[in-house]
Predict the 3D structure of the following.
Amino acid sequence: MTRARLSAATISRLPVYLRVLNAVADEGQQHVSSSWLAQATGVNSDVLRKDLSALGSMGRRGVGYQVDTVKAALEKALGLGSVHPVVLIGAGHLGQAIAGYRGFSPRGYQIAAIIDADENLWGTHVAGLRVQSPQELPDLVAEHKIGFAIVAVPAHAAQAVADQLCAAGVRGILNFAPVELTVPEGVQVRGIDLAHELQILTYLSTGQI
């Protein structure tokens, strides 16, 4: 079954399964039961079995799931068989923290370029990469074959940045700006609003916002 035929809810859970399976694989564990994996990932057992069955027949009654087999299926479904170049827009405090994050490379993502509108930052280096101007975006996207972008700019600048990214050919945007982006059909956007997530966490923890 192709990735396009998986539901959005299923896709959102696949990285969680993969993270747990990577951890048990590092410990040398070769098999896990569906009930154990469900508990470790915080997912209902029936939902987990349905999610994994969408990737193929892998579980065996009385044996469970072979870790390497499920890991391979998850990696294929998530498109992790190759390195995906990413452009980071924004070299402020948040952008610098994102650029320094070491979790991208093991998962198949590499920040290939960093761009900021502040000309005072042009030519400086963040995480070993030279900060460049927005005018260089189209050439960088073409040169590095960049398909994805991380947007870490203020809300008022985010839509203009998204427009530039779409015009340059970027097909996926991870947006940290607290604003909804309008993009053409075929371009995917995932928004991460940290304050919004904290508000939800506050409600769930205390019943108050």
